[in-house]
């Protein structure tokens, strides 16, 4: 029974994150480590999150003005191992701010921003660093 539990736990963790990569798997197409990957799509279903178009973020990327296509269009994200992504709700690096550490955030609609808001489709600036 214990062996079965050890096999099921990674599967359950994967299902909870949906399509979002694990921190160690946040890499570009060539296999190079990324600081983060930002996604345009999420879903009410976790297994369909971290999908659609994505924007790769390298360590040291300091972007006070997110490209127009991405401004206020980020719905899920994944941050690499030993990395930290800081985001702002307004440009250039103004408004509400939030730090995300290693891990996946499949639905930014579930991350509170202030008293009544959330982080879905409001990211306008970011800075990412890895140790």
Automatic annotation (TrEMBL):
InterPro entries: Syncollin. The keyword Membrane applies. GO terms for biological process: exocytosis. The keyword Zinc-finger does not apply. It is a peripheral membrane protein. Residues 1-18 form the signal peptide. This is Syncollin. It comes from Eleutherodactylus coqui.
């Amino acid at each position: 029974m214990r062996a079965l539990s050890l096999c099921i736990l990674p599967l359950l963790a994967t299902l909870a994150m949906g399509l979002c990569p694990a921190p160690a798997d946040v890499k570009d197409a060539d296999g190079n480590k990324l600081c983060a990957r930002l996604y345009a799509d999420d879903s009410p279903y976790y297994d369909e999150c971290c999908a659609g178009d994505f924007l790769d973020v390298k360590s040291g990327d300091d972007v006070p003005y997110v490209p127009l296509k991405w401004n206020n269009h980020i719905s899920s994200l994944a941050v690499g191992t030993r990395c930290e992504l800081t985001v702002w709700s307004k440009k250039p690096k103004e408004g509400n701010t939030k730090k995300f550490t290693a891990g996946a955030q499949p639905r930014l609609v579930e991350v509170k921003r202030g008293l009544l808001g959330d982080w879905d489709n409001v990211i306008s600036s970011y800075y990412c660093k890895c140790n």
